[in-house]
Design brief:
By secondary structure, the protein is an alpha+beta fold. The chain has three helices and five strands, in the order βααββαββ.
Length: 115
């Protein structure tokens, strides 16, 4: 499942912004350990400070990841949810049964955190 998570820096995270590239690299391993794959982490302007896009095996794995991320005190998750793909019609909510969705959902990055 593809998940998109909107994040905001805490005061602690804003003070430790120089270490964000190292934390981003460590996050890749943590996500892999939960059976997932990091698609991208992006710094944004506006209501949210960052966006995390990850492919995770299920909602439980994503919950474990968000709890781990927020417990460190650098970010708060604001909104986190999974996207729906045409191939997963059976997992879509009933209210979306007649809605045509794109094959993939893309967020145009403003600036990548790390490569």
């Amino acid at each position: 499942m593809l998940f998109i998570c909107f994040l905001n820096w805490t005061d602690q995270g804003a003070k430790a912004v120089k270490g964000v590239a190292a934390r981003h690299e460590a996050l890749k391993g943590e996500i892999a350990g939960l059976g997932g794959r990091l698609i991208g982490g992006y710094v944004t302007r506006g209501q949210y400070d960052g966006v995390l896009v990850a492919e995770m095996p299920d909602g439980d794995a994503m919950t474990k990841l968000t709890v781990a991320i927020t417990s460190r005190g650098n970010v708060r998750t604001r909104r986190c949810g999974h996207t729906y793909r045409k191939s997963s019609q059976s997992s879509r909510p009933r209210c979306l049964e007649d809605v045509s969705l794109p094959d993939k959902v893309w967020i145009k990055p403003m600036r990548k955190l790390a490569r």
